[in-house]
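Side project, low priority. Logging it here so it doesn't get lost.
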Amino acid sequence: MTFLYILVPIAVVLVIIAIWVFTWAVDSGQYDDLDGPAHSILFDDEDPAHLAAQPEEKPTPADEPKDLEASAAESQDRDNRS
């Protein structure tokens, strides 16, 4: 009978911890997209349709001057054609 004095509080503490972990998981978005990871394994990484569905990466500051130079060269080519 004395073991109940130990096991009941331990069980209550474990239930409280389980409820807290579950609410944390729901609040942090762990259950937002249940089908996405399961379907993403079916796509080929090199498929253009699959790559189009992925968000575009923001250019790094090192890439920006290259983009500006390329756009300036393209605009000069357009001006020379007309």
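Brief comment: The chain is about 65% helix and 0% strand.
Revisit when time allows.
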